[in-house]
Each structure stands twice: as structure tokens, then as C-alpha cells.
Write a structure and sequence with these properties.
transmembrane helix; globular; Rhomboid-like_sf; 3-stranded antiparallel sheet; membrane; protease; Rhomboid-like fold; serine-type endopeptidase activity; mainly alpha
């Protein structure tokens, strides 16, 4: 499934989303300028290698820097390929602006990075021995999708579902689209574990963990009175005027 657009209008210019998009694109262009050895080192130092944290003595012997906590942030701005980047950035574009409307740019940025951190902790819990570096904004964006799931379940998401070579489009309720998406991450994570895939190249549990983190942390980052198009609306969009009901004769 691939989201094409959603039905919730944007209220404010999403400056944080624009900034995150730009940083990810610039980081990927920098990756493209590196040779094979340089890219390998970049991904292993600035991506998250679970075994580096589960087995610090091994990590030092393998040549990893002693202090690697910054990788829990930097990995969110690196990607494994053009398609990885495009899918992530498009998903952020679809769902991120409406969440930034509710939080504002500063809170949204903090929320986004925190969800990415929580997502990676979930991945480490299930894949502590993995030596493959994990990169990508998927976990952070999954947190944005979790918040969207709570705030805009009534939204419609135009969805591309390719059947072999036939592209099919469906107009799905957001609660259904995101519910199916989350279920697929959990089932894929379970399947990967059953197959002994601690070195899986797709961080299924990071996706699921980020989604749950977005749901759990939403109340701490949202601004009350700014969810104009939520399932339970709050406030009035600034670009819309409120028309007062007609006054009856004799009203003061």
C-alpha cells in the first residue's frame, strides 16, 4: 500500500516538515557523493548497529567510536537508497503537516525525533545481536502516523495498491489504512523472528514501536485548541471566519 493523498486540509505552513524533508534530501545527496568505503563507514558510525550497544566490548574491538549515542538521532536522516528516501519523505509529506498544525513546529520536531528514538529502542529490544546498520526516518514517521491515527481516524487516504502490474486505487478511511499498515509491521516482525532474522534489513519492530510511541506521546506534545479538523474538533481555523447566528428582534 502506498498513500497518495489525504483529505485533511493544511492550516499552517509546515516549516518543521519542510526542514526535515530538506535535511534528509541533503544528507542523501551527501551519501551519493561518497565512495564505497566512505559510505560503509558513514552508515556504521552514524547509523544504529544494535550489537554496538548490546556488546560494547565487541564494538570497541571492531573499531566503533566509544561514544555512539548521537547515532540514535543521526540515523533518522540517512537512507539506504532512492526508493527508501522517496517513500519515507512522501509519507511524511502526507501525514506530517496535519500533526504539525496541532503541535507547532518546535513541538513537532521534538515529537518526531523522540518517536525516532523510541522506534530504534524497540528495534534494539528485538534485534540486540544484529550487526547491520539501521538508517532511515521510518520510525519517526511511524510515530507521526500513530498520532494521525488518533487525531484523524475519519480522514480519507487515497491509496495505491499494486496487484502484480495493475495499479488499483482505493479511498480508505485513515483508521483502516493505518490499522492495516500497523498490523503488517507487527506480522512481518513476528515472521522475521520466526525465521531467525535478527539481521533483517527492514526494521519492522522500529516501525511498530514508532507507531505506538506516537500514540502514547501525543498528549504530551499536542496544543489544546489547535486541532481544527480532528475527529473531535478544537478551535476555529484562523483562515475561516465564524458567522454568528441571526439575532432575534429585541436581542441586546
Amino acid at each position: 500500500m502506498f498513500p497518495i493523498r489525504d483529505s485533511i486540509p493544511r492550516v499552517h505552513t509546515p516549516y518543521a516538515v519542510y526542514t526535515i524533508l530538506a535535511l534528509n534530501i541533503l544528507a542523501f545527496l551527501y551519501q551519493q557523493s561518497l565512495n564505497g568505503r566512505e559510505l560503509f563507514e558513514l552508515l556504521h558510525v552514524y547509523g544504529v548497529v544494535p550489537a554496538r550497544y548490546a556488546f560494547p566490548d565487541w564494538a570497541l574491538q571492531a573499531g566503533y567510536p566509544a561514544y555512539g549515542q548521537f547515532a540514535f538521532i543521526t540515523h533518522q536522516f540517512l537512507h539506504g537508497g532512492w526508493m527508501h528516501l522517496i517513500v519515507n519523505m512522501w509519507s511524511l509529506w502526507i501525514f506530517g503537516d496535519n500533526i504539525e498544525d496541532v503541535m507547532g513546529p518546535v513541538r513537532f520536531t521534538a515529537f518526531y525525533l523522540t518517536c525516532g528514538l523510541a522506534a530504534m529502542l524497540a528495534h534494539l529490544f528485538f534485534n540486540a545481536e544484529a550487526t547491520i546498520p539501521i538508517v532511515g526516518a521510518s520510525g519517526a514517521i511511524a510515530g507521526v502516523m500513530g498520532a494521525y491515527f488518533l487525531l484523524y481516524p475519519h480522514s480519507r487516504v487515497t491509496t495505491l495498491v499494486p496487484i502484480v502490474i495493475i495499479p488499483l486505487f482505493f479511498d480508505l478511511p485513515a483508521v483502516l489504512y493505518l490499522g492495516i499498515w500497523f498490523g503488517m509491521q507487527v506480522l512481518s516482525g513476528i515472521g522475521s523472528m520466526a525465521a531467525g532474522g535478527s539481521g533483517a534489513s527492514i526494521a519492522w519492530w522500529a516501525h511498530a514501536g514508532g507507531f505506538i510511541a506516537g500514540i502514547v506521546m501525543l498528549p504530551f506534545f499536542r496544543r489544546r485548541g489547535h486541532c481544527y479538523y480532528c475527529h473531535t474538533p478544537e478551535g476555529t481555523p484562523p483562515h475561516r471566519s465564524v458567522i454568528a447566528p441571526p439575532r432575534h428582534p429585541g436581542d441586546d
